[in-house]
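#random but structural
TW: two for the price of one
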Amino acid sequence: MARSKKNTLLCSVGNVTVALGGAKTDTDHPGMTNPEHRTQVVVVGKGSENFPFDNTSTLVKKVLKRADDKSKKRRSRAKKPSTVKGAKQIVSDAVAQTEALRFRLASTVHSGLLADWQQQSPRAQELKNDFQLGIAAVMEAFTTAKDEDEIVSNLQKLGQASIVPVLPQGETKETYTDGKTLLGVADIMQSAMMLRQFDGLYEARFGRLVTAVEWALANMEAEYQPAFQSLNVQLEKLITSYKEALPQVIAELAKRNPGAPLMAIVEKAIELLDEELAQILYVLRVYTDCVEQRRDGKFARQMASVAFFFKQIHQMYWSGDLEGVIKTGEVKSPIKDGEEKVGAVFLARVTASGLATIPGSRGPIGAHALQLPYEMLDILVINYPLFCHESRHNIFHDVLGLEDESLQALARDILEAEKTGVFKPSQEYIAVGKQKLPAIQLLVKILTDWIGEIDADVLAALFTGEAFGFSMVASFPAMMIRDAAVSTKTKLLRNSSHFQLVKQRNGSVALQFEPHPVDYVRVYIVAAIFDEIGFPEVAARLRKLADYAVGEVIPDVATFESGDAKSKLTIEVPTKDLLGLAPTVVKSLIRSKYQALGGKSNGDLVMWTQKRQEKVNLLKETLKAGKADVPEDKGDIFVTYVAAAAILAAYELVAEDKAKDVGAFKAINEDAMTMLETLKARADKAAE
């Protein structure tokens, strides 16, 4: 039996292993336009000093294997785990291929900006020159060597095709002066061109990245400097890897393709190397995009709002008491100094990707990166309850031990509920292909694979109250449906998902469920949160909305399909069993005491109350009236209250038939943005 060092093995039936927890990387869509409504967690490492750069030899082997896979028309590696021993993909190969194309089509740095950057940064210019000269020198050796090695021989033939002049009658090579002059001019022109032949290669892949890092190091605030110092190190390592690997890949491809034109081989080598390194390039580009948008002033108001919103949530979480923290500016964290790896360092970019976050603790950069979809810009604050969910991902992964403690406690509480009769599965076994797994074990597996998303839902609800539930149930179909108005559809929530069967070293296969709960069950889990914290009317409304939005028939089973497109294997789990465990799941995540939190629970740190809901209702009425006033005589007003008020105002204006189109929601968003700016001004003044 395979056994993780951190996760207790639950069971192994036949060759199927069921262990606690799941993949800590959602690689379905990060970096690509997200056709679905799923928010994403892109996990980029384990907080190590550097990204897992391969040595040159390993990198070349991976690139050549990629070439073999393509030539044999094997199925995309995006559907299977990395085949290199010990390797762990950062994002999927589908993302890598998309990013590789983006590199090849990317515009270079604007000439004026490039001139300024090169003048201000000798280091950056030296980096570029070293890259170019390194590749050019090795290629020259390939094209001029005269030994018997096949690769060099092939490259020699391909790279040294000489001009055969047709001499005028009566002239020789020695006497034909114009011909000699032509060749001399052509030689010099060729030399000049070859000196710059890799400029485009470098600029398209690294020019913008280096420019952004240089600007950040020179201009961004002190809190971001460690992140960009790390980013600078990662970028230089990446450029070195590219420079050292490319000539070797060219050589091997030439050896395998005798007679092929040299430049065709070079282009193919670049394409393959782009795809192999695009996983790291993608992550680096996320951070440098944040810098470029900050530098260029794009979306300045929205990004400032997001940064303030996230920092305030982070501060309030650790205060242990929402009330008064902004006014005093004091935060007393229940954890020991140093156990929170990154803290309140946030960068944001506007992107065509779906709503997502990169927890900074999972990689070497040391900053959390939030992805803001273009499609949400006009109704940004109305979507802020969802951003509370994203902000929780950062903390969940940032605090040492919190994720593992939460997972173990959840598994224990589910098993205890079954043992004591609080919960009883509707059937003893669930079929997985030809095998049958104990139902309770499979349910534990599914719910622990979902823990990161459920935990984020729990904290978002504790921060914004009923607004989070209503935001979720409306935003899911709004993000998912594109072929017609949502109101023309009957099935607005899905009751299906995916799983993978991942081969283990001992020959067994481990079940791994997609980390997002199926929509219908997810809304019921959020409803259970409100039962747990004393808002049963809200819980009942959400369950009715879930039943209404799931379609014409309440589903008996939640269906999980294989992530392997060639497999027809499905797993059907009784929906009522997943719903029946919802109270146990949310109670565990709200009430469990965690050592990582200094013996406190999430509910001790953050809790929604009727008093807070009343303040939200006050702000909601202000927004409905088309105003942006923030009262000063009603106690503390927090960013989470504004977020909650915005979505609830939208709901009520529609219910009252006062919101006919997008304009009404834009107006709410504008006033809510102004409210947040008022709160920031008050916070800045209090900090003086």
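TW: number two ↓
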Amino acid sequence: MIPPIASLLQQEAGTAAAASPDGFWAFVWSLAQQPGVIETTVAGVIVAAFFFLWWRVSALRQNARAREALADYLLGVEQAMHGDLDGARERLQRVLEQDPENHFARLMLGRVLVQLDQAEQAHQQHLYLQRAFGVDSVENDLLLAQSLCAAGLPAEAADLAERTLQRAPGQAAGWEFAYRAHLQNGDHEAAARAGRKLLALLRDRGEQQRLREDLARTVAQAGTLRWLSGAGDEAKALAREARGLGPKAGGLLLLEARLEAAQRGVDDTARQLAAPPASAGAGQLVPVAAGPRSLLAGVSGATLPMATFAGLCEEARWACRACGAPLERELGRCPRCGRREPAQLLEPRLVEGVESPTELMDRIEVNEAHVHRLVAGLESGDTRARRELLQLGDRAVQELVRAAWRGAEPAREAAEQVLRAMGPHIAKALFAAADELSQARLLAVGEGPSAVVGRIVQGFDKTALPHMEPLFASARSDHRRVLIDFFLGLGDVAAFQRVLERFPPMEILHRMNQAPAAVLRRFLQAVPRGHFLAESLLLEKTFYRDEDLLAAVPDASDPEVLVGVMRRRGPSRALTTALIAGIADEPRAAVSMHVLEEFGAEVLEHVLAAFAEPDCGDDARRRLSRVLARGGAAAAEHIADAFGPEPSAADDRLRNLLVVIGDDAVDVMVAAYEKSGWLEIVSAGLLRRHNNRRVQLAMALGELGTKAATKALKALHKREKDDNLRLSLQRAMHRAGAGDGAPEGRDG
């Protein structure tokens, strides 16, 4: 059988050799003759053609949709420009349904929604662009500020606009919006600053003149506020600026008359105003009205015509609540600042003669305008306004809560002080005012009125308990927060038991974290031993007021309770930072040192970092050194690695610490001496071994001078090969009394 097989192989080899010149095509031809190859090839071609056609049709369809979306976007922009806001909104929403990442369509949709008075939806669109899509655009940020302003948050809108304009200070439209937003917020000084920047950017003379006239009123209003606060020189400067911008600005004449009266006296100024125009000299006030009307008993017993003073105030019965602009009627929107709020009614002629004073007094009621003026007077420190508000009681609560919620910082503090002084009997009116103001909010952005109520009730005592009882039956989250805040402010752990029984721990911890420092400390100082607060709630990691926990220890009824809480909480970063900071405070120093010593090795590195801080005081550094000294060998490990590459005063302090630790640090110093430092490791042997760290360790052993230290110096000297370091070790041994035939060592 073998010879026939060999002959067949020779024949095949001969055939292959004969076909070698065109072997590839022969291979293809032979492959095609195989069964099923042609059918498989045809099927593959059909499938490839099918997928190619599918891909092409899909591409054409996507292109058609893109063209349709582009057409909708362009038509939506055109409709918005021509005032068809509803149609523009529908088209732009259709574009976003097809392409949610179309930033331009979303930006235009937000602008259209603001014009449709849908501020909340507009705010969401701009917020999506900023947060979800990461669009860092000046135009989007300005539109976001406009939506906030339209939602009734002018302070937040003005702040966002000014932060945005720092990146693009040449945006005239942005500065105009910031100017109007500040006016809506009643911040005339900030509005004046924005108006000055806007005036420098305008190029049209007509627009410049209109802005100068409006800015003059704003500057005069800012000057009036300065005058009311007692800053006369600043008020004079603002009055001069307003006179230069527009001599006929509203409020300017009254401001100048007030400044003149403060300088020359009320009597002379009143007589000068009442004098005929011809008698007024240059540079003096001229009468603002002439012609006798009803007479008023004037200064020094004289009689002055009422028309003398009527011209100092603008002839308007209504005024904007925000910017103070005069209005002809009770409009729903101020044309100057754009505030959407009913106008304020003024009473410019209350001093005119009446036929029956008794009947008029019977008709007088406390109205909103009167309360609003009293609350505005609080910011300037008007004691009369404070007394009258206290007398009004419940009728002034809502306006005071509004001022404490949305007013400027001085007005907030003053309003909260008045509300606390009214006492617990206003609790019902306080809750009603917070509920009404909360319902008027369009967006739940920032602090709500319930937070103001929570701060107020924290100043009430136990007499307010009957007024708080109805809140236990309420399911509203703001009522629950107010209730927890009240019981925290009581500082009575026994009464707080009702809160622990009705509210989940996480909700209580959240309110404790948000409580003012003084309130929380007073509450913590009353925690008794073995209470649930000390055994469970204060041990939670979500409670992060460690600094207040430490500050409450000195005046606590049982300080060991809070000290035990800190021990069980462990050396967290927040607690360690608070303890190290407390070492510099005399009342907290002893407790801080005691707890740090108990934490031991876990906090020694942080204590050493505070000890090495150049700005650390002498008393604090001395206390920190005691903590480190009691750390023993564990502290010595950190200290031995803390020496710098060059000698310094810090090295002396560290070396003294090693000496204070004593023999416990000897083995650590020997190990640190023989270990390569970080500079040697980084330099890969380029630096020689006679570095400052080893010299300092040798000096520390010499200053220690005990038997163990002397023995360690001799061992290091015997092994040391570097001549310079051997010399440092010899000096240290000489200082320890172990060199030149001296005794073996001495006890430290």
